[in-house]
Amino acid sequence: MLDTDLIDAGTAYTQGWLKLIEPVPQGLHLLEYILHPTVVHQLVNYCYATDLWETVFNTVNKPIQNRQKICWQTDSIIEVAHTILDNCTPQINRIFDIDAEFNGLDLWRDTAGYTISKHTDNPIFNASLQVYLQNLPELYTLFQYNEKIIQTNPEPNHGYLSDNTVGIPHWMDNSVPENFVRYSLHATWS
Fold it and tell me: Among 66, 9, 59, 1, which Cα is nearest to 36's?
């Protein structure tokens, strides 16, 4: 059974942070403490406990090395997080001046050797959000935006919100080291 109290508290918490973001169509926003702490805690515990991880494939259907995902599990913290972010769709639409619907989320599990070179996200998704759940100081994302290089804060419960329609290049400088697993949440709107 879903924790409706956590959905309500998580929705109010995340909507409160998103309301503070000034609208910037075609923009990039760095996020801090965007998810309710209990949601983050339960997501990390879920990541540790589950064995439902699946291979992630790129746009040409090749497996992405050292990255796995979970898309959905009914009556779990994934469904709670999904509902919270779906409830935040009006704030995402206001920030980017779009009329998008929530597509869903993935939990990502990045293992030793995972990195990603400079790329842009699939523009079929109008907006994307990534929140680090478990991370190290050297595992940040770099963006080339407004003629500057912008670095995300790699701390847990930090990340970014990006307009994918404008093709903002981003990448990692480092790879996940041995004996560490990075977990993050990635959500999209179209």
Answer: 9
- Beta carbons within 8 Å of 173's beta carbon, 6+ residues apart: 138, 140, 142
Strand, helix or coil for residue 128: strand
173-177: Cβ within 8 A, 24+ apart: 173/138, 173/140, 173/142, 174/115, 174/138, 174/139, 175/112, 175/113, 175/114, 175/115, 176/66, 176/110, 176/111, 176/112, 176/113, 176/114, 176/115, 176/139, 177/112, 177/136
Transcribe 72-125 into DSSP letters. --TTSHHHHHHHHHHHTHHHHHHHHT----EEEEEEEEE-TT----SB---TTS
pLDDT tens profile 120-164:
998 889 999 999 999 999 999 999 999 999 999 999 999 999 999
| 3-state DSSP assignment of residue 142 | strand
- Structural domains of the chain, ranges and CATH numbers in brackets: 4-189 (2.60.120.620)
> What distance in Å separates the CA atoms of residue 150 and residue 148, rounded to the nearest whole number?
6
pLDDT band at 59 (very low <50, low <70, confident <90, very high): confident
